[in-house]
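sorry for the late reply, my laptop died twice this morning and i had to redo everyting from scratch. anyway the thing you sent over, i finally got around to it. pasting the sequence first so we're on the same page, its 390 residues, then the predicted structure underneath. double check i copied it right bc i was rushing
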Amino acid sequence: MKRIYMDNNATTPLSPEVLEAMLPFMKGVFGNASSIHSFGQEAAKALEAARKQVADLIGAEPKEIVFTSGGTEADNLAIRGVLEANPGKRHVVTSRIEHHAVLHTLKGLEKQGIEVTYVGVDSHGLVDPVEVAAAAGSGTALVTIMTANNETGSVQPIAEIAAALSGKGAVFHTDAVQALGKIPLDAGKLGVQLASFSSHKIHGPKGIGALFVSRGTRIKPIITGGHHERNMRAGTENVPAIVGFGKACAIAAADLEAESARLAALRDRLQKGILKIVQDVKLNGHPSRRLPNTLNLSFAFVEGESLLLNLDLKGIAVSTGSACSSGDLKPSHVLMSMGLSAEQAHGSLRFSLGRENTGEDVEKTIKTVAEVVEKVRAMSPLSKGARKNG
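ok and here's the structure:
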């Protein structure tokens, strides 16, 4: 039985080309990039080449890229680093649908006296730029709004938010982890001062990410020690992972337009097929302003976790939301913020496609989803109650 993986927003398989690029730096090229001898300089050269590859994908300068251990650390560096650099400002603006890397960090900071304003979203999961700007005042150090939501794929109006924030004096950060390599990103046009990225969402290795820090942005390191990353992030650089991240960015840049179009066509085919043969299904997220690979659906009268487990038994991997929330019995904070009921949120599935998915995968998934939904609904007391009540 061929297994089908449609959980690429959680993580992606490592690209063979990326692994090949990494291998020399796991074997012979082992020098510390901070060392001045030839072993170290060979590693340093590879590190800077990768930094340029990451920068090129987002239209930035290499010196504006700070490597981190992943998206979570990049978010923490952005949030905590800006607050540390601006001790006179104790207010942050964010949205209710952010990744927990942002929300949990801010909840912790609230206990330390930081004030946080959480703006809402509409039924499509989008924030209003005017509302975001209105929430920012003279004491606001940071505004942090994600580029694309990991659960629904809805893409926020980041450039419009940046324009609305003009003159407010707040640093604007975006968690762009899910957007990288899926939609075009130009740091200059977005108007943000900080942006977080992660390698393992684009077929690169786990344990490596980056923070874009635009020139002139006031930010302090949160990991101190050596002078690495231009004094922005202490610790010997993970050269093999950084090389892999750079290669993954180069691959994404080379075929971003074509691959995005291919994935969008597969996603739309999957959506159309499921909605055609399965009743009582609702699309979550914006119908067009969303990532090309992401589809989030709510299935009435069933638990999403039951659907997930039954699909997994048939060799199809999907998600009930964010992998970072797996095992949490609470309904998705993203879907609830969009106005869904707890029952609708609990009955949701996220399909996130990737490079390895094909049309054949989509057709098999449509057929299998229909079979599984019918099976689970037949056993569901929610479904039996609905039928009894007409």
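The domain at 4-12+256-388 is CATH 3.90.1150.10 (Aspartate Aminotransferase, domain 1).
thats about all i looked at so far, will dig more tmrw
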